[in-house]
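Changelog note: in this version the structure field was regenerated for every chain. One regenerated record is shown below for reference.
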Amino acid sequence: MRDAGLAALAYFYFDFRDKEKQNARSFVTSLLTQLSAYSEPCCNIIFHLYSTHRKGAQQPGIEVLTNRLKEMLKVLAQQPVYIIADALDECPDMSGMPTPRETVLGLVEDLIQMQLPSLHVCVTSRPEIDIKDVLEPLAYVAVSLHDENGQQKDISNYVSKVVYSDRKMRKWRDGEKKLVVEELSQKADGM
């Protein structure tokens, strides 16, 4: 649908290895950039944002960015819009008031509460309590793969492949390889 111009799609991965991909500002700016590719009115929203902030010399606040995102979603309301927020649990919940994760959860909640019939939001995450508390009441459909045997088997297969194909690990004794695969697979906790 996206390739045919019948839908808009924006995807963001919260990556625990990259601090720049762990906050609401990065999430919103990525969505704005991706969605601006779908229509001239969306490009105009970005251009206006750029112009009103001294042609990029001044950084807009998260509230301004969020409002521009909501404006874009309304502009795109004639077609389906899909937003995917992947690995939300990798957004930190330890420091700050509100924490980066609380800010993102609030943003997702705001987007869903806009009740745009064309907006579809998919959030993936491990089943962290704070995330479940916010998203479960909003969810039209919730799917849990956390305790599925297939997921555990996929993790075990991946770990085995890495252990048995890595140059350094290939030199290990078979017992050591087997122990590493078993331990990492059992303690992966869905990761």
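Spot check on this record: The longest helix spans residues 149-165. The CA atoms of residues 163 and 180 lie 8 Å apart.
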